[in-house]
Structure formats: C-alpha cells, structure tokens
User: Which sequence fits this backbone?
C-alpha cells in the first residue's frame, strides 16, 4: 500500500511547507481540488518544486474539457491527475488518451457513482479507480468492506485507491483488501505534528 | 431570456479583454471552469474588476467541499456559482446555504445527470438548473426540445439555463421554451469579431 497525502484548503506557502515536510513520508503528494481552484495549476508547479522527487497528484476533478485540463495539469508538473467517474465516457476517454500519450497516470474518482456507472467505465486498464466518500457526506464507515465489495463486483479493475476519512484505525483493517493507494488528508495535515502523524501512518501500513 | 457569455481557455489578460469588450452585450459574464483551474479564483476577481457592473458567474463545478469552495468563489467576486448535480445532495445543500446566507445565487449543472438524480435535487427553489451537454460529447442536438421535456418532467423547477453548443440557429427555436438564461461560449469568443457575434445573439434573442 502506498500513502498519498492530500494538501488542501491552506494558503499556498503553507501547502509548499507541508510538501517539503511530508515528502519524506509520502509515496504521493496530492494538490487538493480546492488548492487548485484557489491558486490555479500554478499550485501544481509550486508543490512539484517543493518536493521534486515525490510523485505529485493533481486532484483536478475534471468533468468536462478533458483534453485541455489534463494537458494543463501534466504540463504544470502533475504525474497523476483525476477525472470524475460521473463525467461522460467521452471525457474520461480524452483524459486517458492524454495520460497514455504523455506517459503519465489517470485516477478516476468514483465519488457518487452508481455501480451501473462504474460498470460502463471499468475498462481503462492502466487507470487507478478511487473509491471516495464525499467530505460533505462524512467519512466512509467501512473502507475495507467497501474495497472488498468493489473487487468482487469489478474483478477486472487492477488498481484501487481509497479516500474519505481514512484514519489510523482504518489502516490495520485495510491490509485485508490491500488497495494500491491509501489517501489521507486532514488526518495528517490537521494533526498537531503532521510529520509525526505521517510517520505513524507509515508505521501502521508497514 | 438572458445572455450569459462564457470566457474560457484563454490567457487571463485575454479573458479580461473579452470581459471589457463583451460586458455591454452580456447579462451575465462567465469565468469558465478551465479559466478557474488555470488561474484560481483570482480569475473571478480579475473579471469582476474588468466588468464591475455585469453579473459574474464562476463556473466552479463544485462536486465536494461545497461550503469552502462557495465561500471562496463569492469572496472573489462571483454573483453566481455552479455546483454539479452529480454531487452528493449534502454538497448541494451546503452550497445552497452559503448562497442564501450571502444573498448570491447558485446554479446546478445537470451535466450527465439521470432523471432520477435530478428528481432528488429539484427542490432548491431559488436555484438555476442548467441543462448542459458536455463539450467532450458534442453539442445538444435539440436544446428547445430538451427544455420542453425537462419542464414537463420537473414542473416545479422555476429557473432554467441551457448550455452546450448553442448557436444563432438555436436561438429562434428557444423562444418557445424560453429558458431564463442562454449560455454561449465559443460561438461568441471564437468568432472573428466577438463583439459583433454577441450583438447578433442579442438581436436574435430580442
């Protein structure tokens, strides 16, 4: 399991500081959607500069204009970009094409996607599928159970990430379903000592 | 019918220049999603400064973090902000609360929303519901017919906007269904003479 740490809803200089401090404990650093909407894709360039040796995910949450947004995001330094599963299939196809052409990666955010929707978009073989519970709805109650159910229903999906209220207590259980990527945000960045919190997550994942 | 002109996928100085040139012919100027992702919410402040007397819509396409994103968008100068119909109901409720509290407006973008989804979110009485065909999928074939069918299915929805490949030829027919807002983007901004194109749309709408 890889640890992706999401940085969001802070001023850009604080986001850069988080990136520098948390890079040693992150497999992937994430520039959150609101950070991108606050500062634009320059937020991606800033985080990449702050932590050049760590993979950077830009949580673009693209839902239309797939070609344009993905080109802008990769050009700005992102290694992975997100597209909404709720987009039209045409949009996801455009994003995927740009990702494949540029040798980067695409994550499909399954926020609010019904199983029928997921069924229509489950064949992007290199994509990472992110099971995601809305911050506005509250945390996932059983992330491990969610992944096990997803794997059973969509056995062809190879790469899985999980996001939404993941805490230290979730990690031990997640070892059963073993997603490729575990995404943690405020559980680390809002801790009293974020670097220590990140280390604790890493230890729990080991 | 009001004319909303969308400005998108151009450098910020060109967007400001469009805002100044097109404000006289616009009821609403729109800062497009990609413009916001390129430059952040400062793009809203810049367009508001360029055309202070024209209503400004920020096409935030919020799909999570409703409270945070809407507060940021209104604070930056937007009079209207968009939330995705594909969001969780909790997200739309949060956006609506911020809109009502701050005396601003909310538009719900119905991109890729099934009728069952729309049924669940059709009771935000002051919201504008935007029928929207994805740029990536191609233009709406029959915008007038789409609105008539929508009105029949959701008679309680009072305020309707239409977006996606609207051209001069669509306008005459739209008089039948008479949406509150007609959204035009590249049909104006990519014309040889955008100000003239905007005037032609206004004439057609009269």
Assistant:
């Amino acid at each position: 399991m890889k640890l992706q740490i999401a940085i969001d809803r802070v001023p850009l200089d604080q986001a850069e500081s988080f990136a520098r401090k948390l890079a040693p404990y992150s497999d992937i650093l994430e520039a959150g959607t609101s950070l991108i909407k606050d500062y634009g894709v320059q937020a991606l360039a800033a985080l990449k500069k702050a932590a050049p040796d760590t993979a950077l995910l830009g949580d673009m949450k693209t839902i239309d204009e797939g070609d344009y947004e993905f080109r802008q995001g990769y050009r700005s330094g992102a290694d992975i970009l997100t597209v909404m599963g709720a987009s039209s299939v045409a949009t996801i196809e455009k994003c995927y094409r740009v990702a494949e052409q540029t040798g980067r990666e695409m994550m499909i955010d399954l926020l609010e996607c019904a199983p029928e929707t997921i069924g229509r978009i489950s064949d992007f073989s290199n994509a990472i599928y992110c099971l995601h519970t809305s911050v506005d709805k509250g945390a996932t109650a059983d992330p491990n159970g969610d992944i096990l159910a997803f794997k059973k229903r969509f056995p062809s999906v190879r790469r899985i990430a999980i996001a939404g209220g993941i805490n230290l207590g979730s990690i031990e259980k997640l070892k059963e379903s073993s997603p490729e990527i575990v995404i943690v945000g405020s559980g680390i960045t809002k801790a009293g000592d974020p670097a220590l919190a990140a280390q604790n997550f890493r230890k729990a994942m080991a």
In short: The longest helix of chain A spans residues 89-102. The interface with chain B takes residues 8-9, 33-34, 36-43, 60-61, 63-69, 72, 84, 86-88, 90-91, 94, 111-112, 134-137 of chain A (CB under 8 Å). Chain A has a mean pLDDT of 96.
